[in-house]
Every structure is written in structure tokens, then in C-alpha cells.
Structure to design on (26 residues):
């Protein structure tokens, strides 16, 4: 239960970080 929340939090953080990096490249 907490594990699922942690994984979704990590996945969301990684997605946001990737989005920011992609915007910086443009």
C-alpha cells in the first residue's frame, strides 16, 4: 500500500524531471 504510493511518487517525480529537461533542451 505504502509501496505503491512510493513507486507512483517516484515515477511522477521522474516524469516531471524528464519534462523539465526536455523543455530546457528546446
Amino acid at each position: 500500500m505504502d509501496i505503491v504510493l512510493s513507486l507512483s511518487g517516484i515515477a511522477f517525480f521522474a516524469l516531471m524531471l524528464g519534462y523539465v529537461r526536455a523543455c530546457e533542451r528546446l
Notes: The chain has one domain: 1-26. The radius of gyration is 11 Å. The CA atoms of residues 4 and 10 lie 10 Å apart. The chain is about 90% helix and 0% strand.
